[in-house]
Amino acid sequence: MDKNEENNNKGDKIKLVGNLVTATGIFCLALALLLMINYWHIRQNKPLETESLKSLVQQFQADPESEVLKKEIRNLDLLARKAFFTSNWQVKTGAFLLLLGGIAFATLLRIFHTLKARILEPLIDGVDSGITRMLSQRWILITGGVMLGLALTSSFLTTDYLKFYEDTGNVVQAPPPESTVKVAAVDGGQQTEDKKTADEKTGDKKTVDEKTVDEKTVDGSQIGTEAPGSAVIPTKVGTPSLTANASAEKAGGNLGTEVTKSVVIPTKVGTPSLTAEFKNHPSFRGPWGQGTSYSTGIPVDWDGPSGRNIKWNVELSKKGYNSPVLWNNLLFVAGADNISRVVYCYNRLDGKLLWEQEAKDIPGSPPAAPKVTADTGLAAPSVATDGKLVYAIFATGDLLALDMDGKRIWAKNLGVPDNHYGHSSSLICHKDKLIIQFDTNKGGRLLALNNATGETSWDTPRKSKISWSSPMLAEIDGKLQVITTSSPTVAGYDFETGAQIWALDCLSGEVGPSAAYADGLVYAANEYATLVAIKPGPTPTAVWKSDEYLPEAASPAVSDGLLFIATSYGMFACYDAKTGQKQWEKEYGQGFYGSPMIADGKVYVMERNGAMHIFKVDRKLTSLGDPALGEKSVVTPAFADGMIYLKGEKYLYGIGK
Q1: Residues 6+ apart with CB under 8 A from 362
Q2: Fewer CB within 10 Å, N side or C side of the chain?
Q3: Mean pLDDT, residues 535-539 taken together
Q4: What pTM was computed for the model?
């Protein structure tokens, strides 16, 4: 082959590569223009500011009982959601294709110039080829880079165009979470201002000898006496066993209804047994954060304005969108403002303030409180307790442990959370570990601290984005796991080591709801994402999904094969937990931010206007009552035998017959 023929072959290659360069350039240019046009279109035509929606809202405010208007608004909401999912997919797909196209364009352009240089042909006659090549590459890359940057920026800015709902009357807003929950703006206070000494001290004492561990109920009655290496826990039929070792004998005590089997759980001498852990309400959403209480005799009838069945109420002096936590006769809440952050302890039987302890003089604590939104505040996380200490965290990153008399045992600062609403992930503790989900704009972490000392037991980095959800515990395949939800991942971590056991990317957006677990399935959901049932394991799989009703703040609750979902736009729905088939639904006007709770064979869910809606845990819709608190409430209830504890925007309530 002579030199001319060789140059002709190279010329054909150059022509082919040149055509490919042109084609990929046109492809990238078209995609970039489409993404920017899409961004401009969304900016000019905001889906939640349409004249149709405004008109419907005005009509609904004038006639809030109209079922026709409710249906039209709901249909419009569903259309907006579908438009969001479609646009989200288009933007993400377009951005991905644009990135691939840009890489292909740059690669082909490089090949084109390399082939040109090999046959020593100038790109423009009479001009030095090296200079021309350098200039052309520079301007092409600059122009392409600008287009690529603008397009990718447009796609990023377009993705979350439905993330805020404004709450004007009966229209729903997506504000940040409370404790695991993003909550609505509430202007109320917390607690009395008088500092009182702990002249009344409650909490049952245990005597541990070489043979027995005695656990007592709140009123002093005997729960049971077991060998120091075990504790007996009653469980309900259909609920996950608390350990793999179950016996057919009934336990010596009644922690829940329909007790048909008991579970023997090893415990350590000198620590509260799991019997005590499960008969109390030691953290947000109850024992292990699972959304289930094992208390019985919970009331279904009360009225805040008239005082019917209201045993006591106390005014709160500091805001805090955290939920009540109970251990024996002690009730704990937290409150904060720009001046101070405080943990409060009440006698749950009469509402008397026993003590309050301020989080101050903590090394590393910021000199001024971080900026947070009013609807999250500085004390959104619920406290946690193991019956020996009570643990609290605030939006300053301050974390402290107090004994049951209010004496500080240890305190530390984890660093001010980089959070544009405010930190709201609640604490959970078990055995010798305090678990903290610390997902911020700077990255995610899951930590375990030693309960007694505050020293780090393990600290696991997470790839997750910022979240407002709280961790929960579940025993899966014989191993205790910490289950977390975030964007985009639902994951399980080894409780003892912090090692990630499994993870599934299935969520998106600003994740506030925590997970639920029962019968081998993990349930997770978030508004504008999905509701998913996950089979955890080395290769986790989504058993079923739904996008009809999605919670913004309230966590799912599951019991007896049924899954309950409460949305911020007022829908409360029941699903078959195994198949995802909807069993029933009920619509309300104000929406839900507090999480539904299972107690005494019933499901309790608080509407934002303070109305508690109570249903039988059943496949048929059976309403058991709608008692009114008399003020707004956006937090989750706590339970003790014969009592329910609620927190409104101004008062804390103890309710019972």
Answers
A1: 398, 400, 411, 412, 413
A2: N
A3: 96
A4: 0.66
